[in-house]
Amino acid sequence: MVKRNRVVITGMGVLAPNGIGLDAFWQSLLAGRSGIGAITLFDASNLKSQIAGEVKNFDPHQFIEPELRPRRMARHTQFAYAAAMMALNDAKIDIRHGSLPSPTPVVIGVSTSALDVIEKVFRDSETKGLQGVSPTALGASKPQAAANVIADRIGVCANAATVSSACPSGLDAIAIACGLIRNGEAEIGIAGGADAPITEHGVASFVASGLSSAFRNGDPQKASRPFDRQRISGVLSEGAGIVVLENLERAQARGAKIYVELGGFGTQRDLTPDQPATGLIGAMRQALANANCRPSDIDYISVYGPGDPLLDLAEIECVKQVFGPYSYIVPISSIKGVTGNPLAAGGPLQLVSCALSIQAQLVVPTANCEDPDPRCDVNLVTLRPRKARINRALINVRGLGGSASSFVISRFL
Question: Is 318 exposed, middle or buried (0-12, 13-18, 19+ CB in 10 A)?
């Protein structure tokens, strides 16, 4: 039989609207303190929606070496690089001393591309003419740029890959790196997701599609309301979540701190375009089967729960189909009340949240769910964290276009 390696997470890096770094991120989740606020990255006064989840107080020069010219990078590339270095530092891996084996996969999920760079190209061409376009714009706007800059910093041992499957991209990237380690093709991987869609045309597009709230401009921290009766739509945000994955034997040999073990993964598209979120049914069943566990073995479900009236309800119905009566017992929550929807970064941020929940044995609350929709009549954890025995958690992510992914992670024993 072919040996299947056990895969664990030994480092995590986070840049989110509700906090930079693990401690700030975790404390915000527990307190239900939202990171949604007025848009400051550009003048949004002409837009119906003037709020979003911006990563606050982010200075790329604090996280990125000057020789890498951070100002030439797209914002999501800056996020991805910063989160990757945080994760490597958290894992106590010093890339300067050649401590990474070859090959080391770097797999980064992105949902949008470098909207800030692309919009600047159009602005420059209108004001300066086509000769005024920056020579660095082409490289900075490539979808592969985020994975490339991390891999370049690591050196020749790295392989870079980019995944783009809408909002599940970041979780899918982690699953790909996990598979490479599990099958023995690599001993360590760096994976996750990053997105920075908060630009003038990016926000306008999400508002036009009805996927970002055009209400509560005066009360932004209450705007993202997963499963609440008064929810109107999701709230667009940005961020990055990157993790270091390792073969268990390697992690133990070097005495690494182990957050969680990665279990089964599943992915499937919606059954039909007019049945949103139904891909989660197959994705959850695949993830459970690949983790060799039953629905009743799951102690917590971190749902996608974007705060959209249709999608929230549809996801709950899918959970009921897979978990049956147990869906009324297992604790369920969404972190998007505080993070908003950071697209490809959303899945990795949920995974980080679950890893911290497993370590603390606390279920994080669904912020702003003050009056739960009676149709979402499962065991929702709202407003306050809840003590619970959490050995296994399941993560759901669903994306525009019908893609859906689920991941089971477990407490390392």
Answer: buried
